[in-house]
Amino acid sequence: MSLGNKVAADLPFLRRYARALTGSQELGDAHVRALLETAVADPQLRASLEGGRVALYRAFNLVWSSAMAATAGQDEPSGLHEAAAQAQLRKITPLSRQALLLTTLEDFSPTQAS
User: CA of 97: how far to CAs of 38, 48, 103, in Å?
Assistant: First the structure.
């Protein structure tokens, strides 16, 4: 299977994770897009994505972490419940938040999430 097909199979799940992590579909998709654009331009990153789902999420987390401070607070949650959930998630440190979402939402093992 080509790398494009492998990534495409995981893309809906990565987008779900990105939305949960960022609190916004628009912002999550922007980070996913940034990852894909970087992978096209960077042969080393592209090669690392051959490692499968865990490598894809690891690369996404690096993109998100590097952009987190620059994009904080740009997109507001769409509803009251979403705003409350995001407020609670913001109380969790970024690494703990990533681990929580990877293990509960994406069914990663604790080892895979680390």
Answer: 24, 24, 10
